[in-house]
Amino acid sequence: MSDAAARPEATKAKTRKKGGMARLWLLLHGWLALPIWAYVFFICVTGTIATITHEIQWLSNPEIRATRPAGVEERLGADALAAAVMEQQPGARLQSISWPVERHFATNVRVTDQNGESRSLYVNPYDGKVQGEQPTVDLRYFTRALHGWLFAPWTSGYSWGWYAVTILGIPMLGSLITGILVYKKFWRAYFKPRLRIGKGARTFWGDFHRLAGIWSIPFIFIIGLSATWFLVEAILSDSGVTLSTAGIPTVLERNVIPEVSLQSDLPPLSLDATIAAAQAAHPGLRVDSIFLPSNAFSPVDLFGRASIPLFSESASVNPYSGEVVKVRGMGDQTVVELVTGSMYPLHFGDFMGVWLKVIYFLFGLLLSMMVLSGMLIWTKRTTKETKAFVQERRAPQLEPGE
Amino acid sequence: MSAGVARGNAQTRIGRWWQDWRFHLSAVAVIVPILCFPPFYTLAMQASGKAGLGAREASELQVGPFPLKIAEFNTDAPIGQGVAGDRKVFSLALCKGCEDRIRAVYLRVGKPRSIRAAGALFNGPPSRMTTDVQLPGSISVNDGLWVTVEEWDGTVHKGDIAIETASPATAQWLRRKEGSQK
Question: Any stretches that span the bilayer, and where are they (chain A) (predicted)?
């Protein structure tokens, strides 16, 4: 909202001086979010919570922490960890292991038992002890699904809930641009911040909206842009356009599969050797997760964060020979792919550790309050009009004799 | 009057109510996730296998020496997936101890001529493998759902189950399609 709007007595003169454009920007600024403010507020609040759900879980549940037992110095290697888990889960099949980038979180090991039930286990990375089981819908997944697609179904292509949320990127960018345009010489407020308390709610919320706004410009830009990109991604995917150069998933040829009469005749798969092979083929590859083959013709897949934490890299290894069949380093990806990949960590604030998540959380709170204060400014401004109007209308009705 | 979105000058009671409340009506959107949550949770339980092998009781199916269990993932008719065609997901459980002998399991509608045309490959652990099978336009409800088992030693076994048994919704969907083509 404009400066002029904060001082009603000066309004008339100022708006006239500012001319038509500022008036138009302010009008646009209002119409972009005001009619859907409650929905935008809901998405902002759930998104804000989503940035720190992993930390909330860490604080509230000791099972998810990677606490080093006394006397143990080193973390277990992948094979030793898998062996320890399988000993505690007899009859189960190992599916994947994920080592959270933040090392204070327990390792996540996914197994399927003999009844066909898949479970994600919290495993201590030092001694391989299974500390607990992740609920099928845990706080993190609940919040992300609520914020990301409102739990709407993914039947064919992207969920309509995904569209309903990501489309908000457009009014968000629009609000940012019109907000900057309407706020003449906003940079001066960086040096002379103003937040008047005690001059009424309308003044306070106006000051707050402007002050929070100018300090949140980069954050709102990142969130609005990434959300808009998620929308574009969905539109492209659902219309059959692919920007990926990764090609179809790797399938091992029949002739590379050893001829044995029983699966148990195959040499056992070593995860450590698989990781080493991938790292030899692509020096510097970080392995954050490893997925075991889902059928006899599929490779072991390894994924990890690249040296620039916004990007990711992957490798696929033949489980029978240990031969690396595919590597997708940063250099193998196009600029569009790298940008697409970076949008997720940029949107979540998950690429520089806990402190950045906390910063995202605080800016998320500010953004949520911006939505709320935008609405409050409008209601407070019009309350006076409403009161006057209603009194005017009611007065004759209250006359005796009606 | 200041610039920005105007309040309006409605004369009637309902008009004034609209002026005051119109911008708060989007709060109703909260109903969407509330309504969508139960099916979301059901799906999460199905996807993890905690709600059983499939949406209905699994059917027994003997393929060569192996007694297998097959179930449809959900009770819906096949879903059109654009260029990927109409598709339907099935789950399969191998007999206990059979996984050492079995290299791969495939699924298709209609009897396969060879192992190269055995259809969609099942993925996942032996206690709950899944596959996503395409239902081409040419098939009939009487074609049957054929499961091919390939052993590590190269032996191939075939077995079939009626579409009606494996997925009544798919059978009905096919009959409706056949009816409309006549």
Answer: 24-52, 160-183, 212-232, 358-378
